[in-house]
Amino acid sequence: MQNIILKEVDSTNLYAKKNLEVLADKTIVQALKQNFGHGRLNREWIDLGNGNLFLSFVLKPSSEFSKNYSNLTQYLSVVLCERLDKYGLEAYIKWPNDVQVNGKKIAGILSETVMQGSEFKGLVLGIGVNLKAELNDLKKITEQKATAFNIELGREVNLEEFKSELVKAFFDNYDEFLLNGFEYIKEKYIKRANFLNKLVKVETIHGIKQGLVKSVNDLGELVLDNEGKEFVITTGDVYIIERE
Ligand code: BT5
To answer: Going from the N-terminus, what domains does the chain have, and what CATH number goes with each?
Structure first.
């Protein structure tokens, strides 16, 4: 397994996408500083300083895209929650793959599929984990509440150690996951879900949907009930509506 560590980069996902042709399957690209990290819909992923994890997995599992690849972000969110358990942190998932501690976002995951024309070239699965942050810097994240390991644990976590444990845990069940897809992790995922039976608003590219979360189906999609009408949502941002 190739392990690239960059001192500084715009984005590990961008780097991996640009160099995909020459990077082998299962290469790990890590940056110690990331200046232009991004999330979905080009949202910014903020670098909270030294000691944080910015990493991309370069994955080339086959020459054709398989539907199971769409759930890799959910697979990684479960792997990450299990790592957090080891540190004594209680982690939850906000659909589809935000990992939270005490209701605050501690990590972000972004999967990008690389195509050349209609040819599938591979996947770049990026993850940012806040291992170390100052409370004041967390305030730079205004859209939602964020946290970091040092704040939740009251002590620092070693970046290299955390990274190698996470990468190992990811590959431990990776082949099995690719074979079986979301159903392989469904039970573990559901146990971590903090949005089930909650009234939510979901912003999707087709507009806003509101309803009670009934379930997550076998494809990892969100199933909403709005006064007896069912909606199945593939991608979007979930906001839990607090009831009085
Ligand atoms: C994500 O997007 O959460 C995926 C972020 C993936 C980042 C990794 S870092 C390594 C690799 N290289 C990249 O360029 N990206 C990946 P999304 O669900 O769209 O959430 C973005 C939102 O998270 C922002 O709009 C902020 O509200 C919030 N946010 C930004 N920086 C944060 C941080 N450090 N900690 C917690 N929340 C943050």
So the answer is: 3-192 (3.30.930.10), 199-240 (2.30.30)
Indicate which atom in ligand 1 lies nearest the CA of residue 41. Answer: 19
For the chain, give me the number of helices (H) and strands (E)? 7, 12
Ligand 1 centroid – CA 180 distance (Å): 28
Contact 177, 75 (CB under 8 A): yes
Atom nearest to 12 CA in ligand 1: 12
Residue nearest to atom 16 of ligand 1 (CA): 126
Report the alpha-carbon distance of residue 53 to residue 78 in Å, rounded. Answer: 17
Please report, for residues 4, 46, 113, 149, 243, the alpha-carbon distance to residue 75 in angstroms, rounded to integers and kept in the order given. Answer: 23, 23, 16, 21, 31
Rounded Cα distance, 105 and 101, in Å? 7
Ligand 1 centre to CA of 228 (Å) is: 35
For a pocket test of ligand 1, which of 12, 45, 58, 150 has the largest count of ligand atoms closer than 8 A to its C-beta? 45
pLDDT at 1 (0 to 100): 78
- What average pLDDT values come out for the chain (244 residues) when binned by 10 residues? 95 98 98 97 95 98 96 98 97 95 97 95 98 95 95 96 98 98 97 94 93 96 95 93 70
Q: Which residue's CA is the nearest one to ligand 1's atom 30?
A: 45
Using DSSP bridges, classify how beta strands 229-233 and 237-240 pair: parallel, antiparallel or unpaired: unpaired
